[in-house]
């Protein structure tokens, strides 16, 4: 079904085998066609992708989109919403395939929306999903800048507007007039366009560039420079150049080499997608573990605070225990009941002295973090420590040293 996106139209070409078995779908190729790619050639590419097991979303951009980026933005946003309907239910590899000026007529705006550098925005989850699914970028006879003098050459080319001389002259007048009228604006758009393509290296998707030395509309030096710049930025580029094939006619003139290159690239894209999914799962797992560790550390900190507030006794020897109640318990309990409680605990522990902490039941003292808390909060040697309570005298070596018998006498008074 043909849909309109404000700056062009788009439609799906589903793989026939997909209807019989959902597992047959390998991925989605988004074809960005513009001007020079006629319906007959376009069908050849769609059939090629379908034979490999890929669906195609064909995007037909308006000719003036490169001159009016807001039209390209509207089309790109509609395409992303269309893709998300499929990817939300079944994520799969996504390959962006630009033909001729399709990258400037729509594709670069789609990249800007995904990366959040455009006036149109997606929510974070959708952007992350699309970044994960994008597993390759193909450029056939491109990328090129179609504004300015090159745009006029596109307008005069018979493969775009036919052989009518009157139509070609009219198109040349339109493009030249637009370039003269919006000279500064087009200059900033051109810079933004190339910068967006370079920044897409960050998506981690490889590039396949198919071009020809004899292409009068896609200058070979410009494409070579783009490929070298992408490689310099850390991108993986496979560059295939022929000598005499025409603009967007590489598949037609070199079918075997072209099909082999595309098949291998799409297979690699599946591997890239799987690796990106694996990294995403690992990162989410580490983030989840980090959150759990943070929660556990908070619990340990709370347990340490509770243990300091409700400390009952500290072992000072194999059989001797020094018992200090909290201030509230000291006021509410009588000395006899405290001594009875102390005797019960001593009998229950036998000959081993330990630390009793009023900690949450979820804290396991035998765990690694539990042992860390034990060593950090309750040291084995308390000599030299000051133990203070609200409104009471501190006990420690800094003010008054007490012997072990003195400690026992204090305990008996309590």
From TrEMBL:
Cite the Pfam families for this sequence. DUF829 (PF05705)
Q: Gene3D superfamilies in the record, alphabetically? A: alpha/beta hydrolase (3.40.50.1820)
What domain of life is recorded for the organism?
Eukaryota
Disordered: annotated span: 334-357
Q: Which SUPFAM superfamilies match?
A: alpha/beta-Hydrolases (SSF53474)
Q: What is this protein called?
A: Uncharacterized protein
**Where does this protein come from, organism-wise?**
Lactuca sativa
